[in-house]
Amino acid sequence: MQKLAIQGGFRLNGEVRISGAKNAALPILCAGLLSSEPLQLGNVPDMNDVATMCRLLRQMGVAIEVNGGQVTLSAAQVDKLEAPYDMVKTMRAAILVLGPLAARFGEARVSLPGGCAIGSRPVDLHIKGLQAMGAEIHIEHGYIHAQVPRGTGAKRLRGARIFFDLVSVTGTENLMMAATLADGVTVLENAAREPEVVDLAHCLIAMGARIEGAGSDTITITGVEKLHGASHNVMPDRIESGTFLVAAAAAGGNITLTDARADIMENVLEKLQEAGAIIKVSGSTINLHMNRRPKAVNVRTAPYPAFPTDMQAQFMALNCIAEGSAMVVETIFENRFMHVQELRRLGAQIDVEGNTAVVKGCAQLEGATIMATDLRASACLVIAGLVAQGETVVDRIYHLDRGYEHIEAKLSALGAQIRRVK
Ligand code: EPZ
User: Fold this and answer.
1) What is the mean pLDDT of residues 296-310?
2) Is 116 a known active-site residue?
3) Alpha helices by DSSP H, 290-392
4) Is 93 a pocket residue for ligand 1 (Cβ < 6 Å)?
5) For 177-204, b where at least 16 C-beta lie within 10 A, e where not — what string?
6) CB neighbours of residue 50 within 10 Å
7) Which pLDDT band, with edges at 50, 70 and 90, does 153 fall under?
C-alpha cells in the first residue's frame, strides 16, 4: 500500500500545467465504441481510471494505441459486448459503455456497479432511459443485460423524450451517446449541464452526430445511420485546477495554472476570492496569490453551474485552518463526508449533522497518519497535510492515483515537501 509523506508549512510558488479532464476523457473513450472508424484523442490524462477504461475497452476488442496523451481507438472489431464485474467494481464510470454498446450492437452486458465510499450511486436513470428508447433490460446475477429487439431492419434504439428525475452526469452522457444512433429524435430533459457533457457532445458532433443544447438542461439528439472517425482534444480538468488553487490558498504563495479554463470555474474562483485569494485570469492561465490566512467560506454543492461536489472536500480542508466558521452542505451524495474523521485526527474542529458540516477554523493543524477513502477526500487530506505542523502520512493513496496525473510531482515542483513511500 503506497503512502504520501508530507512536511507541512511550505508555501506554494510557481507554474503548474493542468491535465486533460478525467470526467471528460472517460465518456469520450467510450464514444469510440460508436464508430468502426478510428477516434484520435489528444490531451488524455495519464491516470489509473483512464488506464482501467482502456483495459475494459481492449477486452471488448477495441484496438487502442496510447502514445503519451495521444490515444487512438478503433472499434472495428468489437467481439465482446460485456463489462465484467472485476473492472466495473473498481470504476463506476464503466457504466458508460452501456449506451454505446446498446446503440451500435443492439446488446450489452454490464455489471451493476457496486456502491462506493461516497454513496450507493444507483444507475436506475441510465436503465430507465434505455428502456424508454426500446431496450429490453434484465438484471440477472448482478449484471444489466440490455437487448434491443430487432425492428424493421437492424436492431436499433428509437428516439424518445426522457425526463431525468435527478440531474445525472453519466446518465446524461450514456443516453446522449445511445441517442446518436437511434431512429428518430431523443430529447433529454433536466439533463446535466456539466462542461464534461459539453466536451463529449463536441466529440460526438465531430464524429457526425446531430446534437443541440448540450450545456443546457434540454439536449436534443437526432439519430443518424452511423458515426465516422474524428479527432478531439480533451478539455482541461476543472477539478484538478480547483484542487491546486485551494492548496495554494491554504498553504499561501503564488501559483499560476497553465492550459486551464477559468470560464467553467466561476463559482470556485468566486469562493476563493471570498476566502481572500487574489485571482488574475489571462487566457488559459489562472494566477492565485494568497498572502494571508484564509477566511472561512460557506459552500453548498449542487449540479453545474453551482458549486461542484467534487470540490467540497478540498474546501473543507481550507476551512479547517481559516479564520471563522463555515457551513459545508453536500446535496449530491449521501455519504461524502468520509474525510471529516480523518481531518479530526489532525485537530480539525468539525461537527456533522446530516448533510451539513460546520467547520470551526483552527490556527494550526498537527500532522498525523491519516487514510484516504475516496478520490477527492484524498486530495483534501493532501491539502491538510500541506498546512499541518510536522509530518502527515496519507495512506491508501491509490484513490488519489485514480484521478490525478502525477500530483506529487506537480506539488513538489511548486515547493511542497511531499514524497511517495511504500
Ligand atoms: C459524475 O458521477 C462524476 N464522475 C463524479 O465525479 C461527480 O461527483 C458526479 O458526476 C456529480 O457531479 C464522472 O463523471 C465519471 P451522477 P455520476 O449520476 O455521473 C444519483 C470524481 O470525483 N443518481 O451525476 O456517477 C446519484 O446517486 C467523481 O471525479 C441516481 O439516483 O454522478 C447521485 O446522488 C466522483 N440514479 C446523484 O444522482 C442514477 O441513475 C448525481 O449522480 C444516477 C445517479
Assistant:
1) 98
2) yes
3) 312-320, 338-345, 375-387
4) yes
5) bbbbbbbeebbbebbbbbbbbbbbbbbb
6) 25
7) low
